[in-house]
Amino acid sequence: MNKGLVHIFLWIVYFTLAIAFKANSLDLAYSTKHTLVMLPIQVLSYYGFGYLAVNRFLEKKKYLLFGLTAIVFFGIFYVFMMFFIVPNFEEYYNAIPGSHVHREERVVTITLVLAMTVSTIFHILENRIAQERQSQLLLNQHNEAQLMYLKAQINPHFLFNALNNIYSLAVVKSDKTPNMVLNLADLLRYSIYEGQKGKVLITDEIRHIEKYFELYQAAQEKPVNIKFNIVGSIGNQKIEPMMLIPIVENCIKHGDLGTNTDAFVQVILEVENDGLRFTTLNSTSKTNHQKDGVGGVGLKNIKRRLELKYPNEHTFSVMDTGQEFEVFLNIKKL
Questions:
Q1: Which residues pair with residue 226 across a beta bridge?
Q2: What share of the chain is helix, strand, coil (3-state, %, to 5)?
Q3: 329 forms bridges with which residues in the sheet?
Q4: What is the mean pLDDT of each run of 10 residues along the chain (334 residues)?
Q5: Could you tell me the pTM of the whole model?
Q6: CA–CA distance, 240 with 196 (Å, rounded to integer)
Q7: Taking Cα atoms as reference points, which of 247, 257, 253, 264 lies closest to residue 299?
Q8: Alpha-carbon distance 70 to 57, whole Å?
Q9: Range list of β-strands (E), 203-248
């Protein structure tokens, strides 16, 4: 809600309540007149003291200047009210219960101290809220920039792997090469254009995982043991783009499909209600562990993206037994 409108609304509420309170012991017209005269003074004291004393000095830890400003501010308004307001509204001050001795001075003092106190408290609160919003905005901008950087890392990594597969076929002049090039073009189009969106349909992510497997299978001399199972009804569920494909790519890269006749890759996607479970399991061996560590940079990338897009709404784990490598992702709410 607009800050200016909130202030206007609060002043209208204050004006109405002030008239209603005074009308208990004074005439309604007189109460309205006094409130109308006092309102500009109170508005000026609230914003003037807040800007000059609170924002410029107190918030900058210039406590001496804040104290001096408060004294000067109080003195000016005290003199103004005692000489120009009190003489014209004696009936209002006479209606206030209590001792008649220095009654006007007490009322004016309490009024000004209360106005300055309220101004201090509310300006500090508004400043803290504004600072919190600014910090959150900067954090969001930083996270979005980091997310775009992480997404940008995926594309070349994915491209180089796919090109290596196509190159191996092109060398032997395989008839599969043209179709692989088309598949790669479709995958790149998806990663570049769809990857910039906030979320994409899970069905799109599935379709491109299947294209990736097709691309990999086509580059092999013999069919490899790759299984992709989908459990549950996908519907129109959406997910952060390029979240699942890098996990699939990782299990192919770090598996032993090229060196072990019994090698396998198993991928299971389960969708239930608003959540998703994604598991990849592949055979592996100590000889094909990468120097960048278990899972490599790709899984670290995914882990960070999950922290940014699904904070406190996901589980991500990696398990390596030396013979099998498993990655498990659970997003509680898509």
A1: 265
A2: 65, 15, 25
A3: 278, 316
A4: 84 91 89 91 91 92 93 93 89 78 86 92 91 75 57 58 73 77 78 74 90 81 89 87 84 81 92 90 72 56 84 90 91 88
A5: 0.56
A6: 10
A7: 247
A8: 10
A9: 226-231, 238-239
Length of the chain: 334
pLDDT the model gives residue 294? 45
C-alpha 3/C-alpha 252 separation (Å) is 55
Whole-number Å distance between alpha carbons of 228 and 206: 10
Structure tokens at 94: 């006479």
What three-state secondary structure class fits 243? coil
User: Is 207:244 a contact under the CB 8 Å cutoff?
Assistant: no
| Per-residue tokens: 321 | 């037994």
Sign of CA dihedral 70, 71, 77, 78: positive
Cα separation, 271 vs 277, in Å, equals 6
Question: How many angstroms separate the CA atoms of 45 and 120, rounded?
Answer: 11
Segment holding 62, helix H or strand E = none
Task: Determine the number of helices (DSSP H) and then strands (DSSP E) in the chain.
Answer: 9, 7
DSSP 287: G
Identify the pLDDT of residue 144. Answer: 62
pLDDT at 279: 96
Which DSSP letter does residue 227 get? Answer: E
CA distances in angstroms from 22 to 31, 32, 83, 103, 286, listed in the order given: 6, 9, 22, 17, 86
pLDDT at 156: 59
